[in-house]
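User: Structure please.
Assistant: Input sequence and predicted structure:
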Amino acid sequence: MSHPPAPTTAGPGRAAPGFLVLLIASGTIISLCMGLRQSLGLFMRPMTLDLGVSAATFGFSIALQNIVWGLSQPVVGALADRHGPRPVLIATSIIYAAGLALMVVAGARPGGLAFAGFLIGIGIAGTGFGVLIGAVSRATAPAKRTQTVGIVAAAGSLGTVVIAPAGQVLIGSLGWRPAMLLFAAVAALLAVVSLAVRDPGRNADVPTTVKQRLGDALAEALTHRGYLFMMAAFFACGFQLVFIATYLPSYLDLCGVAPGVGATALALIGLFNTIGTYAFGLLGARFSQRRLLALIYLLRTLFIAAFLLVPASAGSALVFASAMGMLWLGVVPLVTGVIGRVFGLGHFNTLYGIVFLSHQLGSFCGALMGGMVFDRFGNYNAGWGALIAVGLAAFLLQWSMDERPPRRRLPAAPPLPEAA
Protein backbone atom coordinates (compact mmCIF):
# COMPACT_ATOMS: atom_id res chain seq x y z
CA MET A 1 0.00 0.00 0.00
CA SER A 2 1.46 3.33 -1.10
CA HIS A 3 1.95 6.20 1.25
CA PRO A 4 1.21 9.88 0.48
CA PRO A 5 4.19 12.14 -0.16
CA ALA A 6 5.69 13.81 2.87
CA PRO A 7 4.60 17.39 3.37
CA THR A 8 7.03 20.14 2.45
CA THR A 9 5.92 22.49 5.16
CA ALA A 10 7.78 23.18 8.35
CA GLY A 11 6.45 21.23 11.26
CA PRO A 12 6.71 22.22 14.91
CA GLY A 13 10.38 22.52 15.76
CA ARG A 14 11.62 21.03 12.47
CA ALA A 15 11.52 21.55 8.70
CA ALA A 16 11.31 19.05 5.85
CA PRO A 17 14.38 18.90 3.55
CA GLY A 18 12.36 20.10 0.56
CA PHE A 19 11.19 23.12 2.52
CA LEU A 20 14.76 23.97 3.56
CA VAL A 21 15.94 23.73 -0.05
CA LEU A 22 13.13 26.10 -1.07
CA LEU A 23 14.08 28.58 1.65
CA ILE A 24 17.81 28.49 0.85
CA ALA A 25 17.31 28.78 -2.91
CA SER A 26 14.74 31.57 -2.53
CA GLY A 27 16.93 33.51 -0.12
CA THR A 28 19.94 33.15 -2.43
CA ILE A 29 18.07 34.33 -5.52
CA ILE A 30 16.50 37.31 -3.76
CA SER A 31 19.82 38.19 -2.14
CA LEU A 32 21.72 38.31 -5.42
CA CYS A 33 18.86 39.99 -7.28
CA MET A 34 18.47 42.79 -4.75
CA GLY A 35 22.21 43.14 -4.20
CA LEU A 36 22.72 43.87 -7.89
CA ARG A 37 19.79 46.26 -8.03
CA GLN A 38 20.71 48.23 -4.92
CA SER A 39 24.34 48.63 -6.09
CA LEU A 40 23.55 50.25 -9.45
CA GLY A 41 23.88 53.72 -7.91
CA LEU A 42 27.66 53.13 -7.75
CA PHE A 43 27.76 53.31 -11.55
CA MET A 44 26.08 56.71 -11.89
CA ARG A 45 29.12 59.00 -11.73
CA PRO A 46 31.49 56.89 -13.87
CA MET A 47 28.79 56.23 -16.46
CA THR A 48 27.62 59.83 -16.73
CA LEU A 49 31.22 61.06 -17.07
CA ASP A 50 32.22 58.38 -19.60
CA LEU A 51 29.06 58.38 -21.70
CA GLY A 52 28.40 62.11 -21.46
CA VAL A 53 24.82 61.63 -20.30
CA SER A 54 23.10 63.66 -17.61
CA ALA A 55 22.20 62.50 -14.13
CA ALA A 56 18.55 62.81 -15.16
CA THR A 57 19.11 60.37 -18.04
CA PHE A 58 20.69 57.82 -15.71
CA GLY A 59 17.95 58.49 -13.16
CA PHE A 60 15.29 57.89 -15.80
CA SER A 61 16.81 54.47 -16.54
CA ILE A 62 16.56 53.56 -12.85
CA ALA A 63 13.07 55.06 -12.66
CA LEU A 64 11.90 53.10 -15.71
CA GLN A 65 13.39 49.95 -14.21
CA ASN A 66 11.24 50.40 -11.12
CA ILE A 67 8.00 51.20 -12.91
CA VAL A 68 8.44 48.23 -15.28
CA TRP A 69 9.13 46.06 -12.25
CA GLY A 70 5.82 47.14 -10.74
CA LEU A 71 3.79 46.86 -13.95
CA SER A 72 5.16 43.44 -14.84
CA GLN A 73 4.84 41.98 -11.33
CA PRO A 74 1.17 40.91 -11.67
CA VAL A 75 1.90 39.37 -15.10
CA VAL A 76 4.97 37.51 -13.89
CA GLY A 77 3.04 36.34 -10.83
CA ALA A 78 0.20 35.03 -12.98
CA LEU A 79 2.67 33.10 -15.16
CA ALA A 80 4.24 31.58 -12.05
CA ASP A 81 0.79 30.60 -10.75
CA ARG A 82 0.05 28.83 -14.03
CA HIS A 83 3.41 27.27 -14.93
CA GLY A 84 5.22 27.16 -11.59
CA PRO A 85 8.02 29.42 -10.34
CA ARG A 86 11.00 27.62 -11.90
CA PRO A 87 10.50 28.47 -15.62
CA VAL A 88 9.61 32.06 -14.75
CA LEU A 89 12.73 32.42 -12.60
CA ILE A 90 14.99 31.02 -15.33
CA ALA A 91 13.53 33.23 -18.06
CA THR A 92 13.63 36.42 -16.02
CA SER A 93 17.19 35.70 -14.83
CA ILE A 94 18.32 35.68 -18.45
CA ILE A 95 16.39 38.90 -19.14
CA TYR A 96 17.99 40.49 -16.07
CA ALA A 97 21.48 39.54 -17.31
CA ALA A 98 20.72 40.89 -20.79
CA GLY A 99 19.61 44.23 -19.37
CA LEU A 100 22.77 44.64 -17.30
CA ALA A 101 24.99 43.66 -20.24
CA LEU A 102 23.21 46.18 -22.45
CA MET A 103 24.22 48.97 -20.05
CA VAL A 104 27.81 48.51 -21.27
CA VAL A 105 26.97 49.52 -24.85
CA ALA A 106 23.91 51.65 -24.12
CA GLY A 107 25.74 54.93 -24.72
CA ALA A 108 26.22 54.10 -28.42
CA ARG A 109 22.52 53.55 -29.02
CA PRO A 110 19.68 56.08 -28.68
CA GLY A 111 17.41 55.00 -25.87
CA GLY A 112 19.85 52.24 -24.92
CA LEU A 113 19.86 53.10 -21.21
CA ALA A 114 16.08 53.21 -21.12
CA PHE A 115 15.75 49.83 -22.84
CA ALA A 116 18.31 48.36 -20.46
CA GLY A 117 16.26 49.66 -17.54
CA PHE A 118 13.15 48.10 -19.11
CA LEU A 119 14.78 44.66 -19.28
CA ILE A 120 16.23 44.92 -15.77
CA GLY A 121 12.77 45.79 -14.43
CA ILE A 122 11.30 42.60 -15.89
CA GLY A 123 14.23 40.60 -14.54
CA ILE A 124 13.78 41.92 -11.00
CA ALA A 125 10.02 41.26 -11.13
CA GLY A 126 10.73 37.58 -11.73
CA THR A 127 13.74 37.05 -9.47
CA GLY A 128 12.75 39.42 -6.65
CA PHE A 129 10.16 39.07 -3.93
CA GLY A 130 6.88 38.51 -5.77
CA VAL A 131 7.24 35.01 -7.24
CA LEU A 132 9.37 33.57 -4.44
CA ILE A 133 7.32 34.94 -1.54
CA GLY A 134 4.25 33.37 -3.15
CA ALA A 135 5.99 29.99 -3.31
CA VAL A 136 7.24 30.24 0.27
CA SER A 137 3.83 31.35 1.56
CA ARG A 138 2.11 28.35 -0.03
CA ALA A 139 4.62 26.04 1.63
CA THR A 140 4.31 27.56 5.12
CA ALA A 141 1.69 26.99 7.79
CA PRO A 142 -0.35 30.13 8.61
CA ALA A 143 1.02 30.45 12.14
CA LYS A 144 4.57 30.70 10.80
CA ARG A 145 3.95 32.63 7.59
CA THR A 146 4.94 36.12 8.79
CA GLN A 147 8.15 34.88 10.40
CA THR A 148 9.09 32.77 7.37
CA VAL A 149 8.47 35.61 4.92
CA GLY A 150 10.57 37.77 7.22
CA ILE A 151 13.45 35.30 6.98
CA VAL A 152 13.35 35.22 3.17
CA ALA A 153 12.99 38.99 2.91
CA ALA A 154 15.89 39.46 5.33
CA ALA A 155 18.06 37.28 3.11
CA GLY A 156 17.34 39.74 0.32
CA SER A 157 19.86 42.15 1.81
CA LEU A 158 22.79 39.84 2.32
CA GLY A 159 23.82 40.20 -1.32
CA THR A 160 24.22 43.96 -0.93
CA VAL A 161 26.70 43.40 1.91
CA VAL A 162 29.06 41.70 -0.56
CA ILE A 163 28.07 43.10 -3.95
CA ALA A 164 28.18 46.82 -3.09
CA PRO A 165 31.78 46.94 -1.80
CA ALA A 166 32.89 44.40 -4.42
CA GLY A 167 31.31 46.56 -7.11
CA GLN A 168 33.16 49.63 -5.86
CA VAL A 169 36.48 47.75 -5.95
CA LEU A 170 35.77 46.42 -9.45
CA ILE A 171 34.83 49.84 -10.76
CA GLY A 172 37.99 51.36 -9.29
CA SER A 173 40.35 48.64 -10.52
CA LEU A 174 38.83 47.45 -13.81
CA GLY A 175 36.50 50.27 -14.82
CA TRP A 176 32.74 50.40 -14.84
CA ARG A 177 32.26 48.38 -18.06
CA PRO A 178 33.97 45.14 -16.88
CA ALA A 179 32.31 45.61 -13.50
CA MET A 180 28.88 45.80 -15.16
CA LEU A 181 29.61 42.68 -17.22
CA LEU A 182 30.46 40.82 -14.03
CA PHE A 183 27.14 42.01 -12.58
CA ALA A 184 25.45 40.54 -15.67
CA ALA A 185 27.24 37.23 -15.09
CA VAL A 186 25.91 37.10 -11.51
CA ALA A 187 22.38 37.72 -12.82
CA ALA A 188 22.80 34.85 -15.29
CA LEU A 189 23.89 32.63 -12.37
CA LEU A 190 20.40 33.08 -10.90
CA ALA A 191 19.05 30.82 -13.65
CA VAL A 192 21.24 28.00 -12.34
CA VAL A 193 20.13 28.50 -8.73
CA SER A 194 16.51 28.55 -9.94
CA LEU A 195 16.76 24.88 -10.86
CA ALA A 196 16.48 24.11 -7.15
CA VAL A 197 13.11 25.88 -6.85
CA ARG A 198 9.95 23.91 -7.36
CA ASP A 199 6.31 24.71 -6.72
CA PRO A 200 5.44 23.20 -3.32
CA GLY A 201 1.75 23.24 -4.05
CA ARG A 202 -0.89 24.73 -1.79
CA ASN A 203 -0.50 24.07 1.90
CA ALA A 204 -3.30 21.92 3.25
CA ASP A 205 -3.22 23.94 6.47
CA VAL A 206 -4.33 27.10 4.67
CA PRO A 207 -7.97 27.74 5.53
CA THR A 208 -10.43 27.87 2.68
CA THR A 209 -12.03 31.28 2.20
CA VAL A 210 -15.20 32.32 0.47
CA LYS A 211 -14.84 31.80 -3.28
CA GLN A 212 -14.82 35.10 -5.10
CA ARG A 213 -14.31 36.25 -8.66
CA LEU A 214 -11.20 38.31 -9.36
CA GLY A 215 -13.24 41.32 -10.48
CA ASP A 216 -15.25 41.29 -7.27
CA ALA A 217 -12.08 40.95 -5.19
CA LEU A 218 -10.51 43.93 -6.95
CA ALA A 219 -13.64 46.04 -6.54
CA GLU A 220 -13.80 45.11 -2.88
CA ALA A 221 -10.17 46.00 -2.23
CA LEU A 222 -10.15 49.23 -4.25
CA THR A 223 -13.13 50.53 -2.29
CA HIS A 224 -11.61 49.53 1.06
CA ARG A 225 -10.26 52.65 2.77
CA GLY A 226 -7.53 50.78 4.60
CA TYR A 227 -6.26 49.16 1.41
CA LEU A 228 -6.09 52.53 -0.32
CA PHE A 229 -4.28 54.09 2.64
CA MET A 230 -1.73 51.27 2.64
CA MET A 231 -1.21 51.69 -1.10
CA ALA A 232 -0.50 55.41 -0.65
CA ALA A 233 1.90 54.77 2.23
CA PHE A 234 3.72 52.12 0.17
CA PHE A 235 4.15 54.72 -2.60
CA ALA A 236 6.08 56.87 -0.11
CA CYS A 237 8.14 53.83 0.90
CA GLY A 238 9.36 53.28 -2.65
CA PHE A 239 9.96 57.01 -3.11
CA GLN A 240 12.29 57.14 -0.09
CA LEU A 241 14.22 53.92 -0.58
CA VAL A 242 15.08 54.26 -4.27
CA PHE A 243 16.19 57.87 -3.84
CA ILE A 244 18.56 56.82 -1.04
CA ALA A 245 19.89 53.70 -2.81
CA THR A 246 20.47 55.60 -6.07
CA TYR A 247 21.77 58.97 -4.92
CA LEU A 248 23.37 58.50 -1.50
CA PRO A 249 26.83 57.66 -2.96
CA SER A 250 26.68 60.72 -5.23
CA TYR A 251 25.45 62.95 -2.38
CA LEU A 252 28.37 61.85 -0.22
CA ASP A 253 30.82 62.58 -3.06
CA LEU A 254 29.41 66.10 -3.35
CA CYS A 255 29.89 66.57 0.39
CA GLY A 256 33.56 65.65 0.10
CA VAL A 257 33.24 62.24 1.73
CA ALA A 258 35.64 59.58 0.42
CA PRO A 259 34.14 57.59 -2.52
CA GLY A 260 34.44 54.21 -0.77
CA VAL A 261 32.10 55.39 2.00
CA GLY A 262 29.12 55.31 -0.36
CA ALA A 263 29.68 51.63 -1.15
CA THR A 264 30.22 50.85 2.53
CA ALA A 265 26.98 52.67 3.38
CA LEU A 266 25.05 50.54 0.88
CA ALA A 267 26.61 47.42 2.34
CA LEU A 268 25.61 48.47 5.86
CA ILE A 269 22.05 49.04 4.67
CA GLY A 270 22.05 45.45 3.45
CA LEU A 271 23.60 44.07 6.62
CA PHE A 272 21.29 45.82 9.06
CA ASN A 273 18.27 45.20 6.87
CA THR A 274 18.82 41.50 7.42
CA ILE A 275 18.44 42.06 11.16
CA GLY A 276 15.59 44.54 10.90
CA THR A 277 13.47 42.56 8.45
CA TYR A 278 13.71 39.40 10.51
CA ALA A 279 12.89 41.33 13.69
CA PHE A 280 9.81 42.98 12.17
CA GLY A 281 8.68 39.59 10.89
CA LEU A 282 8.71 38.32 14.47
CA LEU A 283 7.08 41.46 15.85
CA GLY A 284 4.35 41.30 13.21
CA ALA A 285 3.17 37.99 14.63
CA ARG A 286 2.64 39.56 18.08
CA PHE A 287 1.69 43.21 17.59
CA SER A 288 -0.44 45.36 15.30
CA GLN A 289 1.06 45.13 11.82
CA ARG A 290 -0.37 48.47 10.69
CA ARG A 291 1.08 50.25 13.72
CA LEU A 292 4.47 48.65 13.11
CA LEU A 293 4.33 49.84 9.49
CA ALA A 294 3.51 53.36 10.63
CA LEU A 295 6.41 53.24 13.09
CA ILE A 296 8.83 52.25 10.32
CA TYR A 297 7.75 55.21 8.17
CA LEU A 298 8.05 57.64 11.08
CA LEU A 299 11.48 56.41 12.21
CA ARG A 300 12.84 56.52 8.65
CA THR A 301 11.74 60.13 8.31
CA LEU A 302 13.24 61.14 11.64
CA PHE A 303 16.58 59.55 10.75
CA ILE A 304 16.61 61.36 7.40
CA ALA A 305 15.99 64.68 9.12
CA ALA A 306 18.72 63.98 11.70
CA PHE A 307 21.19 63.01 8.94
CA LEU A 308 20.65 66.34 7.20
CA LEU A 309 21.03 68.34 10.41
CA VAL A 310 24.55 67.11 11.20
CA PRO A 311 27.65 67.80 9.06
CA ALA A 312 28.18 65.16 6.38
CA SER A 313 31.03 62.82 7.26
CA ALA A 314 31.99 59.19 6.97
CA GLY A 315 30.76 58.57 10.51
CA SER A 316 27.37 60.22 10.06
CA ALA A 317 26.86 58.44 6.72
CA LEU A 318 27.57 55.01 8.19
CA VAL A 319 25.36 55.59 11.23
CA PHE A 320 22.55 56.79 8.93
CA ALA A 321 22.96 53.76 6.65
CA SER A 322 22.85 51.39 9.62
CA ALA A 323 19.68 53.01 10.98
CA MET A 324 17.98 53.00 7.58
CA GLY A 325 18.99 49.39 7.05
CA MET A 326 17.12 48.35 10.20
CA LEU A 327 13.98 49.89 8.65
CA TRP A 328 14.59 49.04 4.98
CA LEU A 329 12.55 45.96 4.06
CA GLY A 330 10.83 45.31 7.38
CA VAL A 331 7.68 46.47 5.60
CA VAL A 332 7.53 43.32 3.43
CA PRO A 333 6.36 40.73 6.01
CA LEU A 334 4.04 43.34 7.54
CA VAL A 335 2.34 44.38 4.27
CA THR A 336 1.92 40.77 3.15
CA GLY A 337 0.57 39.91 6.60
CA VAL A 338 -2.03 42.68 6.50
CA ILE A 339 -3.22 41.74 3.01
CA GLY A 340 -3.51 38.04 3.84
CA ARG A 341 -5.33 38.70 7.11
CA VAL A 342 -7.75 41.32 5.79
CA PHE A 343 -8.54 39.85 2.35
CA GLY A 344 -7.46 36.21 2.64
CA LEU A 345 -5.30 34.21 0.23
CA GLY A 346 -7.80 33.69 -2.58
CA HIS A 347 -6.42 36.56 -4.69
CA PHE A 348 -3.38 37.36 -2.57
CA ASN A 349 -0.87 37.63 -5.44
CA THR A 350 -3.06 40.06 -7.36
CA LEU A 351 -3.80 42.29 -4.38
CA TYR A 352 -0.17 42.31 -3.29
CA GLY A 353 0.86 43.05 -6.89
CA ILE A 354 -1.34 46.15 -6.97
CA VAL A 355 0.04 47.45 -3.67
CA PHE A 356 3.55 46.71 -4.91
CA LEU A 357 2.80 48.61 -8.12
CA SER A 358 2.08 51.65 -5.94
CA HIS A 359 5.48 51.13 -4.29
CA GLN A 360 7.14 51.05 -7.69
CA LEU A 361 5.33 54.18 -8.84
CA GLY A 362 6.90 55.84 -5.81
CA SER A 363 10.27 54.36 -6.78
CA PHE A 364 9.88 55.75 -10.29
CA CYS A 365 9.11 59.21 -8.95
CA GLY A 366 11.94 59.10 -6.40
CA ALA A 367 14.56 58.03 -8.94
CA LEU A 368 13.41 60.51 -11.58
CA MET A 369 13.03 63.36 -9.09
CA GLY A 370 16.56 62.93 -7.76
CA GLY A 371 18.16 63.29 -11.19
CA MET A 372 15.98 66.26 -12.12
CA VAL A 373 16.69 68.05 -8.83
CA PHE A 374 20.45 67.60 -9.27
CA ASP A 375 20.41 68.81 -12.88
CA ARG A 376 18.38 71.87 -11.87
CA PHE A 377 20.11 72.90 -8.63
CA GLY A 378 23.44 71.03 -8.59
CA ASN A 379 22.58 69.40 -5.25
CA TYR A 380 20.03 67.08 -3.67
CA ASN A 381 18.62 69.36 -0.96
CA ALA A 382 15.12 69.60 -2.43
CA GLY A 383 15.07 65.83 -2.89
CA TRP A 384 15.85 65.17 0.77
CA GLY A 385 13.09 67.60 1.72
CA ALA A 386 10.62 65.67 -0.43
CA LEU A 387 11.61 62.45 1.37
CA ILE A 388 10.71 64.01 4.72
CA ALA A 389 7.34 65.25 3.44
CA VAL A 390 6.22 61.94 1.95
CA GLY A 391 7.49 60.03 4.99
CA LEU A 392 5.33 62.02 7.37
CA ALA A 393 2.33 61.53 5.09
CA ALA A 394 2.95 57.77 5.01
CA PHE A 395 3.08 57.62 8.81
CA LEU A 396 -0.29 59.38 9.15
CA LEU A 397 -1.95 57.24 6.48
CA GLN A 398 -0.68 53.95 7.84
CA TRP A 399 -1.47 54.81 11.47
CA SER A 400 -5.10 55.62 10.60
CA MET A 401 -5.57 52.60 8.30
CA ASP A 402 -8.80 50.63 8.67
CA GLU A 403 -7.72 46.97 8.85
CA ARG A 404 -11.14 45.43 9.37
CA PRO A 405 -11.99 42.74 6.77
CA PRO A 406 -14.70 43.70 4.25
CA ARG A 407 -18.17 42.96 5.58
CA ARG A 408 -19.20 40.67 2.75
CA ARG A 409 -16.33 38.31 3.51
CA LEU A 410 -15.70 36.24 6.61
CA PRO A 411 -12.43 37.20 8.29
CA ALA A 412 -9.61 34.73 7.64
CA ALA A 413 -8.18 35.14 11.13
CA PRO A 414 -8.90 37.16 14.29
CA PRO A 415 -7.25 40.60 14.32
CA LEU A 416 -3.89 40.97 15.98
CA PRO A 417 -3.66 42.94 19.24
CA GLU A 418 -2.90 46.63 19.03
CA ALA A 419 0.63 47.62 19.89
CA ALA A 420 0.99 48.95 23.41
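Confidence is low (pLDDT under 50) at residues 1-14, 202-209.
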